[in-house]
């Protein structure tokens, strides 16, 4: 049996035990986590393959203008920059929504898990402190998972907002420098 098949089976077994321990809410949190990471990868793709050529086209369009100093020229430059930055910022509200939803889903999983634990304890005739402690520990797993995905999503949002602010400033600087070079 090839090593990657063994590795895949071990990973699948670990994932199955993790979902069994935390309940079906973990599957939903997993889907939300995949969406968060997909948005991050999509932004990386957009930045490298769509934003940079659009930025280059914008600089060339700005340089090809005959006049750069009037109020209308500066206003037009500001509109062009705003449009390009808005395209860069477009999925951030959805990403923020997904990050906010993760801890709430974790809390939902904990509440449903606690209800299951108390329900099973009420059916048992004897006091089983160990079983209750295990049940509570399993019930808190969705909250932990939701918080972990949320923290990673917050780091992603912070990084993307930093990149967008930096690109906004760089774009203004490039356009100003390109106009100066065109008149020199």
UniProtKB/TrEMBL annotation:
Membrane-spanning intervals of the chain: 25-46, 94-115, 135-157
UniProt keyword annotations, A-Z: Cell membrane, Membrane, Protein transport, Transmembrane, Transmembrane helix, Transport
Listed Pfam families: MotA_ExbB
Listed GO CC annotations: plasma membrane
Domain of life (superkingdom): Bacteria
Cellular compartment(s): Cell membrane; Membrane
GO BP, sorted A to Z: protein import
Domain MotA/TolQ/ExbB proton channel, first and last residues per copy: 66-171
Family that this chain belongs to: Belongs to the exbB/tolQ family.
Protein name, per record: MotA/TolQ/ExbB proton channel family protein
Origin species: Halomonas binhaiensis
């Amino acid at each position: 049996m090839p090593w990657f098949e063994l590795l895949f089976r071990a990973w699948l077994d670990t994932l199955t035990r993790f979902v069994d321990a935390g309940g079906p809410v973990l599957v939903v949190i997993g889907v939300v986590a995949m969406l968060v990471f997909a948005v991050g990868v999509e932004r990386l793709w957009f930045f490298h393959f769509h934003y940079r050529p659009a930025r280059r086209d914008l600089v060339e369009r700005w340089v090809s203008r005959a006049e750069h100093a009037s109020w209308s020229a500066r206003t037009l430059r500001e509109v062009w920059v705003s449009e390009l930055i808005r395209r860069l910022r477009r999925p951030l509200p959805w990403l923020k929504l997904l990050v906010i939803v993760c801890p709430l889903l974790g809390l939902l999983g904990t509440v449903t898990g606690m209800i299951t634990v108390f329900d099973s304890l009420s059916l048992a005739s004897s006091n089983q402190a160990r079983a209750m402690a295990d049940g509570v520990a399993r019930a808190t797993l969705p909250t932990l998972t939701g918080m972990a995905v949320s923290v990673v999503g917050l780091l992603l949002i912070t990084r993307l907002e930093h990149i967008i602010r930096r690109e906004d400033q760089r774009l203004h600087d490039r356009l100003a420098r390109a106009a100066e070079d065109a008149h020199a």
